């Protein structure tokens, strides 16, 4: 089965700082919105995914899961495209949290397979918190919008401190709740739930439709039909009327294609692992691989030999026996 996910190639991404009210109200923050400048050219993220299986290139969902910083967004979307949609701009944190959710799921499943239960519980708690709608404000905090009125500014500061604490305590609650999961059945159920939330749920929001193509050979003798599935990683929210017609309101579901790629890898028996050195996820094509790259493996070797050398230096010199 073939999946196609055409997205627009990105030329540039600019960060626009705009004052917005905090989701629960009370004060204004300087949010970082992404202004995505697109090319007419389209790219298919799944084409790269299928190619990664044949050639030695990094699969898109691995690259997506490793996104941690705002500056990494442009090279990623330049390569794999950004969903075309009509709607409001996304905040940098809103995109980064999507990647973090997938990475945390990969890590959790990796630890689950390795039967490292304390790590599984910790990661489950972290992921349950990261799945909350407001969690990106915790991981990628934005500054308070400065106010000229000193008194109001102080009030905002106090309020911000409070909400920061409440986000932190929400996280603590999830961590504590997950730490209580000791029954293997409960852990398995929670694992199921997390796969559903991270990978399946987004696929239910987006449009995926079959597309049949009929091919005729040159002489017209051979007729062939192919079936593919077209994915548009966008959630349709409704329509707005204006004087000349209507326009639709949509929001991109950025992680939908990458979550599906991960599910496809899993069901084919492919494994993603966490690098023992840099904590990035990588495709484990060999069962004994524990580092994502030569660089990471080399770094560890150098460090080990250095520490061995230092240890030797500390040893007293062996006395020559006569
Ligand atoms: Zn590494």
Describe this structure in words.
With 322 residues, this protein is an alpha+beta fold. It has one domain. The chain is 46% helix and 26% strand. The protein has ten helices and eight strands. Strands 1, 4, 5 and 6 form a four-stranded mixed beta sheet that branches. β7 and β8 form a beta hairpin. α4 packs antiparallel against α5 and α5 packs parallel to α8. The radius of gyration is 24 Å and the shape is globular. Zinc ion binds next to loops.
Question: What is the compact description of this entry?
Answer:
The chain is an alpha+beta fold and about 325 residues long. The protein contains ten helices and eight strands. The strands form three sheets. Strands 1, 4, 5 and 6 form a four-stranded mixed β-sheet that branches. A two-stranded antiparallel sheet has the order 2-3.
């Amino acid at each position: 089965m073939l999946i196609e996910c055409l997205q627009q190639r990105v030329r540039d991404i600019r960060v626009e700082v705009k004052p917005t009210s905090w989701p629960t109200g009370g004060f204004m923050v300087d949010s970082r919105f992404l202004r995505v400048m697109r090319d007419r050219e389209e790219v298919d993220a799944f084409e790269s995914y299928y190619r990664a299986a044949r050639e030695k290139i990094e699969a898109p969902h691995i690259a997506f899961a490793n996104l941690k910083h705002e500056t990494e967004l442009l090279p990623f979307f330049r390569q794999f495209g950004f969903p075309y949609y009509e709607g409001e701009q996304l905040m940098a944190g809103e995109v980064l949290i999507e990647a973090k959710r997938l990475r945390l799921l990969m890590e959790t499943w990796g630890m689950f397979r390795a039967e490292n239960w304390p790590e599984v519980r910790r990661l489950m708690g972290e992921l349950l918190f990261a799945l909350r709608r407001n969690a990106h404000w915790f991981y990628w905090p934005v500054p308070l919008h400065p106010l000229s009125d000193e008194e109001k500014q102080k009030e905002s500061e106090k309020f911000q401190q409070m909400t920061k604490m409440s986000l932190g305590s929400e996280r603590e609650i999830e961590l504590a709740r997950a730490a209580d999961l000791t029954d293997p059945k409960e852990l398995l159920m929670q694992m199921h739930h997390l796969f559903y939330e991270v990978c399946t749920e987004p696929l239910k929001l987006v449009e995926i439709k079959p597309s049949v193509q009929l091919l005729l050979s040159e002489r017209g003798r051979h007729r062939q039909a192919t079936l593919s599935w077209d994915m548009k990683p966008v959630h349709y929210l409704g329509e707005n009327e204006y004087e000349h017609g209507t326009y639709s309101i949509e929001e991109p579901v950025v992680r939908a294609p990458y979550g599906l790629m991960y599910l496809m890898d899993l069901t084919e028996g492919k494994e993603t692992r966490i690098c023992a050195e840099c904590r990035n996820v990588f495709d484990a094509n060999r069962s004994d691989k524990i580092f994502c790259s030569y660089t990471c493996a080399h770094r560890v070797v150098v460090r080990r030999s250095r520490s061995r050398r230092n240890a030797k230096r500390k040893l007293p010199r062996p006395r020559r026996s006569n």
